[in-house]
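Interim report, section 4.2 (structural modelling).
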Amino acid sequence: MYTGRAYRLLESHGIRVGERVVVRTSTGEHRGILMPRYELADDRHLVIKLKSGYNVGVGIERIVSIARDEEGEGVEEERIGKGRGIDEQSLRVGVGGGVHHGKDRVRLAMISTGGTIASRIDYRTGGVKAALTADELYSIVPELSSIAYMDAEVLMQEYSENLTPMHWSMMAERVGEKVLQGYDGVIVAHGTDTMHYTSSALSFALQNLPVPVVLVGAQRSSDRPSSDAATNLIGAALFAANADAAGVFVAMHNDRSDGRIAVHVGTRVRKNHTSSRDAFRSIDMEPAALVDLNTREIKMDSNLGIMGRDTSRRPLIRSRFDGRVALIKFHPGFDPGIIGYLIGKGYRGLVLEGTGLGHVSKGCFNAIRDAVDSMLVCMTSQCIWGRLRMTVYETGRDLLRIGVIPLDTLPETALTKTMWVLANSTSLDEARSMLLSEMAMEFK
Amino acid sequence: MYTGRAYRLLESHGIRVGERVVVRTSTGEHRGILMPRYELADDRHLVIKLKSGYNVGVGIERIVSIARDEEGEGVEEERIGKGRGIDEQSLRVGVGGGVHHGKDRVRLAMISTGGTIASRIDYRTGGVKAALTADELYSIVPELSSIAYMDAEVLMQEYSENLTPMHWSMMAERVGEKVLQGYDGVIVAHGTDTMHYTSSALSFALQNLPVPVVLVGAQRSSDRPSSDAATNLIGAALFAANADAAGVFVAMHNDRSDGRIAVHVGTRVRKNHTSSRDAFRSIDMEPAALVDLNTREIKMDSNLGIMGRDTSRRPLIRSRFDGRVALIKFHPGFDPGIIGYLIGKGYRGLVLEGTGLGHVSKGCFNAIRDAVDSMLVCMTSQCIWGRLRMTVYETGRDLLRIGVIPLDTLPETALTKTMWVLANSTSLDEARSMLLSEMAMEFK
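Predicted structure of the assembly:
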């Protein structure tokens, strides 16, 4: 996994990843396990896991000698000389956790919520377990310290399929606090399964943001050689620290190489692949930005009208969601009795994922007529791409007449918005008019 | 809408689409309304709508004179001389309906089921209505007659959002009859909204086919200038008549130009855009074939293992579906009570559209435990692209232990297959093992 100069150094000494090594530099000595590197362009550092559990990055040009550490199990703590080299120092900043204030350095908050990006392989079961703390995660991506001071904390440890609207509220509140504390950006490490639901939920809960809030995940766990955890995190941090942008975003690989991270608008992104690195895609729009990991350049799409960064802007934080909303995908043979079930359970919202331009069968009309009396019934399309257009065909016009609300957004975004407007309005009429007002670039 | 030579001819005579014209050829005379052409490469024909309602195509090189018909409203029936030109004749074959047997010509059956491809604008309401019969449809696409003898009939007239498993059974039976009658291919004109559900349903109901069955639709109605009805039909007919392929396919535009029609495997295709011509996409595979409308060349993808045409092959026709199967999309805040509702209603199958590699929240586990006693519970992924992999994370392994069946197919295909296996098996165990056997190229 080491490349270029680092690879040649290790090769020439016959040292392999996972072996105990002792590395001497001009300023001190490190003993520990040689860790794998992630697929980054950087071939100028070795990473050594110390007995303390922390990882240290050692600049290759500073290495005086490297050898297998024959002392075996009894690995000693590292010994660092007095005159630390800049290179080693910079790689260790932030490892101890906590905010590292600096007058002229950017400060980012990182909130870990679980998922693959914060997980590692459980060698006992062979599967993947949520296990890494945010600090550990940070310690294995030493490059982050060259981007900003980082304050990392664990808010929760959940696979994202287990997250509920209650968890969105917790995240919105914690992120809101960080924003009010004056951080220059907030990174939320998140499982990828429902990251796009959360990003759209936070987009409504956290409006008028002064700085970027960037959700980031990984498709492969951070101790797998092909992990995208490190590169996604670096891309997210570069954007959060430097982009002239504010709002809620998702940062993930733009393609299957490691060169570029795409930053998507939080309400317009979807996980479109079960496993590939570039699973997340902006739908019916371009990504807000591309971050080049080699040059560290951020290319914003200036046509999209992304709000700029403005630390004097006061955020609107409204973190409540009404969970009594269902997202229902229509299909041939769909049983309208499910709508009746939701009415009976006191649901207040129903987002239909209809076919084509926004259709369901005539057989559903009566159930929908019953539903509109007591809840918001919204239409979206299971096609995923393309505009909702309910005036073209008889079916759509009939549904509009019945009182179905056309929501020209992703179905997942329609769900989170409906949950949010219901919790932040005093009547169905008010909620309906909020639904039809654009709040977070959610309309196609 | 006329191009090239046809355009220049009309331009030089100052004649516009919609005007009454009289056209004389070396063999006769036509009076009627100059119809718009569809966006085809063919610039060698004018289309005239006769008083009879039929359209006739007139080869430009045969035209002796053309003029605006100043007789106004009283358009006369066409008068054709004795020695009809080949060109005119070929364009009129089939207009009268019924099978036109010819010893050495390919015969296709066309079954119309409704939808945009068989619809036109209702100028009263401004919307689109299902109205055209298959014969009318055929008469406005005279190019079809140069491809094959066509036997066209109307089986039903439904927007596809109104179709149910019962309609799939009707279609399977009618298509099956046509196959047994020895047609060289069958075209099913269908609404696009649920065409991919129907194509997968027919893929299970009609196995071991000797010839191709091609579903075809249109994203814009056939009397709109930008209609894709004619080009899709021509592509479908070229494939059904000439391709060395058997099975169930969907033929629609490959891209936003008019040059190529993509032919997709019936179980691996999805409507991915609400309105664009290239809405239908093969998922995680290439299209089975591309049909070039200009050269009429069919380029099969030989890597896919598509079954070849073999008129001695005996089809397996099993047209029944069990409608007691639901497709449920999981989402944050999903109410497992819906699963309880389905159990109570006597459902026999549940296809979950889970997140990522095939996950739902822990909160659903108990409801799924209850469900597996009385029904098949299958998992698919709402990501759409990528393999289902339920062994990677704890959540997936837990669900497998509970008895969830991993179905590495599109969710829509999982639904139709589950409905089909339940109607064609005698026990849940048998149905389960049928689910896990590939039948129609449905596995990714």
